[in-house]
Known about the structure:
Layout: H1 5-26, H2 33-39, H3 44-50, H4 54-77, H5 84-91, H6 94-98, H7 105-113, H8 117-138, H9 145-170, H10 174-191
Amino acid sequence: xxxxxxxxEQNKGNLLDAASRLFRARGVDGVGVAEVAKEAGLTHGALxxxxxxxxxxxxxxxxxxxxxxxxxxxxxxAGRSPSFSDYLDALFSVRARDRVAAGCPMAASASxxxxxxxxxxxxxxxxxxxxxxxxxxxxxxxxxAAERRRTAVATLAxxxxxxxxxxxxxxHDNALSEEVLKATRAVIARGA
Length: 192
């Protein structure tokens, strides 16, 4: 039975939502396409009608997950111009550490992006550039453009690493996890 265009788009959206959540929570390699399809309420055949491969699904799910993260950042900013310090507070927070399945996919996917083909790497690079631009815009305009860019790139790269380490140790040593976040934030703030 053929589905309408509207239903096909809804199905695709459901697949992307499910994949984005599951891939962030357990990694691309930790989730099979059948599980993504089941989570979306579809068959894996329906999944392959929309995505030619798991890598294509992963790239599209990453892009959608990052779009959701950007929407959350925009809602958080709510018409104001957050300072660099505001961004640091958000980026290096326990909340950012604990929001694995609903948080930014960059921290969840950084170590996997290079192993899953050029599409995921391209999606990651695009998302990284978009978030760097947000951070860069929060920096003092008196700084030279090259210095703002360097600071924003270093901040985001440090945040992705700090969140990964903080998540890795939190179940065993929550104090160390929080120390990682606070120490990285402090060093980045001091260098800006």
